[in-house]
Write a structure and sequence with these properties.
The protein is mainly beta and 184 residues long. It is 6% helix and 49% strand. The chain has a single domain, classed as Sandwich (Immunoglobulin-like). The protein has 1 helix and 11 strands; from the N terminus they run βββββββββββα.
């Protein structure tokens, strides 16, 4: 028996916790078995945005582009017989060209990671995104394709104890920049 739960969430840039994330699903429509809640989703503030500078310089005039997570859409389902949790999640973010941009196409990466109840990351995938800014705009909004996570469980009641983390895949310099300036 597979039971699915749908949700939609959105948030401002730099949000640490996406409001209860893939929220509670409720109960089986036939009243047989309570359905466990979906795992919570987090957007840590230090990876929820990215600023790409040109090679030399860290001034506002050296910004090539900036991007930030705006939220996600997603759903989860439990297969009670096979004891698995399947999660589909699709991140949403916006980007802005900076004054140092020499090209209307930019490349960035984001990650989706799954942490088990013991606090260990058991899955992490990095995804590439190529953004193209229209000729008449320096801002774009982007929703990526759905990312799929398949989680075998010893007991489906442990599903809500997992956590999903999303953020931009940053260099050490970008992470330091966010921790120093972007979150103040």
């Amino acid at each position: 028996m597979t039971i699915a739960c749908n949700l939609r969430r959105a948030s401002a840039l730099g949000v640490v916790l996406m409001a209860a994330g893939l929220a509670a699903c409720g109960t089986d429509p036939f009243g047989e078995t309570p359905v466990p809640a979906c795992p919570r989703t987090f957007l840590p503030s230090d990876t929820a945005q990215i600023t790409e500078f040109r090679e030399k310089g860290r001034d506002l005039t050296d910004v090539v582009f900036e991007a930030g997570f705006e939220g996600y859409t997603g759903e989860c389902s439990y297969d009670l017989e096979d004891k698995t949790l399947d999660i589909l999640i699709s991140p949403k973010f916006s980007a802005r060209m900076g004054p140092a941009a020499s090209d209307r196409s930019q490349h960035l990466q984001y990650f989706v990671a799954l942490k088990n109840p013991g606090g260990e990351f058991v899955q992490k995938s990095v995804f590439d995104v190529d953004l193209t800014f229209p000729k008449d705009a320096d801002r774009v909004r982007y929703t990526d394709e759905q990312v799929s996570l398949h989680v075998p469980l010893a007991d489906v009641n442990y599903g809500p104890d997992y956590e999903i983390y999303m953020g931009f895949q940053l260099s050490h310099d970008q992470l330091d920049y966010n921790r120093t300036f972007a979150n103040k």
